[in-house]
């Protein structure tokens, strides 16, 4: 049988608030409150241009708390998509957990359910897939599924780093752009690992 000429899939998973856009202790409740961190969308564009699938995994407990509804969340994510497209970035999937912590769902980070669903969506193993976040729960969820862990100092990242207790192997970078610099450098040096299709 002829071999496929399609390049192997490469996947990056990003947290949203504090990694792509500015975070708020009062939640991002409207499209106007969603503001990208300088350089983050351009960094995502570089991933897209180098053949990476970009997936977002975000806890959105404000839905369960009644602070906004699904229509508003969709509008916020529409703004994210359009802003990304304007600089040449492509978001391949956005996964979110609408539950509060006391609902004990499996999808809310630090539980791994949301990341597992991303792997299932693309038919890929998550072992070695970069996960970029700014909180301990991001890193804990990523560690649980075997991702490579990248903590950024934007958002809650600096406070997370100060508190400590991060999973082994967590790498620290200033922001998403710095992580992308590192990933593309590794790829150019032959060190980046394409995502592995799951065994059927």
Structural notes for this entry:
It is built from six helices and six strands. It is of the alpha/beta class and 200 residues long. The chain has a single domain, classed as Rossmann fold. It has a six-stranded parallel sheet, sandwiched between helices. Helix 1 runs parallel beside helix 6 (176-188). The chain is globular. The model has no long low-confidence stretch (mean pLDDT 93).
Sketch the major β-sheet. 6 strands, parallel
> What number is the mean pLDDT?
93
Q: Briefly note the CATH topology name.
A: Rossmann fold
Query: Helix fraction?
Result: 25-40%
Descriptive key words:
single chain; alpha/beta; six-stranded parallel β-sheet; 200 residues; Rossmann fold
In short:
This protein has helices spanning 40-49, 70-86, 113-122, 136-144, 157-163, 176-188, and strands spanning 10-14, 52-59, 93-97, 130-133, 148-152, 171-173. With 200 residues, it is of the alpha/beta class. Strands 3-2-1-4-5-6 form a six-stranded parallel β-sheet, sandwiched between helices.
């Amino acid at each position: 049988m002829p071999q496929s000429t399609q390049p192997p899939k490469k996947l990056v998973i990003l947290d949203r608030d504090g990694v792509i856009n500015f975070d708020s202790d009062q939640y991002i409740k409207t499209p106007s409150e969603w503001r990208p961190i300088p350089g983050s969308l351009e960094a995502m564009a570089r991933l897209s241009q180098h053949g990476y699938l970009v997936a977002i995994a975000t806890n959105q407990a404000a839905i369960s708390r009644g602070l906004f509804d699904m229509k508003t969340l969709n509008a916020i994510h529409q703004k994210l998509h359009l802003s990304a497209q304007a600089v040449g970035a492509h978001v391949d999937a956005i996964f979110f957990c609408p539950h509060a912590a006391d609902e004990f769902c499996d999808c809310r980070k630090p539980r791994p359910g949301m990341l597992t669903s991303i792997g299932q969506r693309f038919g890929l193993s998550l072992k070695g897939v970069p996960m970029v976040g700014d909180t301990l729960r991001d890193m804990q969820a990523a560690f649980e599924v075997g991702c490579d862990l990248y903590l950024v100092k934007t958002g809650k990242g600096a406070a997370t780093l100060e508190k400590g207790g991060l999973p082994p192997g967590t790498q620290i970078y200033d922001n998403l752009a710095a992580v992308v610099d590192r990933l593309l450098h590794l790829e150019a040096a032959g060190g980046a690992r394409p995502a592995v299709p799951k065994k059927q």
